[in-house]
TrEMBL record:
Membrane-spanning ranges: none
Any Pfam family hit: DUF4096
InterPro entries: IS402-like_dom, Transposase_6_like
Domain Insertion element IS402-like: 9-85
Coiled coil: none
Protein name: Mobile element protein
Source organism (scientific name): Streptomyces globisporus
Length: 117
């Protein structure tokens, strides 16, 4: 089992795949191949749960840190996280089938603001 499969098990991937927007189609001959959403999602989850910065995203995931950050921003603007949360709450059995322990974020991973900045 790869790190991507451990961070994004099939159950979570099936739910995420239902709420993520369809990737835009590039004109012929344009740019590099697009990294898969599952690899990027695994990298986002790693950053969220490890407390590392975007620039510290390990290369083992494939996409660069900037790709991971850009996709996270696109998904945030598309309200993917809220839709996924709602889907997990509404889907019968979804909460029981997924191991959420690896996705927990506690206060140790969150940076405190100093003097209101």
């Amino acid at each position: 089992m790869t790190i991507v499969e451990r961070l994004v098990p099939d159950g979570l991937w099936e739910l995420f795949h239902r709420v993520v927007p369809v990737a835009p189609v590039r004109p012929k001959g344009g740019g590099r191949r697009r990294y898969g959403d599952r690899e990027v999602l695994a990298a986002v989850l790693f950053v969220a749960t490890s407390g590392c910065t975007w620039r510290q995203t390990p290369e083992v995931f494939g996409p660069s840190w900037s790709t991971v950050y850009r996709r996270f921003t696109e998904w945030s603007q598309a309200r993917v996280w809220a839709k996924l949360h709602r889907l997990v709450l509404d889907e019968p059995g979804a909460r029981g089938d997924l191991d959420w322990s690896r996705c927990a974020i506690d206060s140790v991973n969150m940076r405190a603001l100093k003097k209101g900045t």
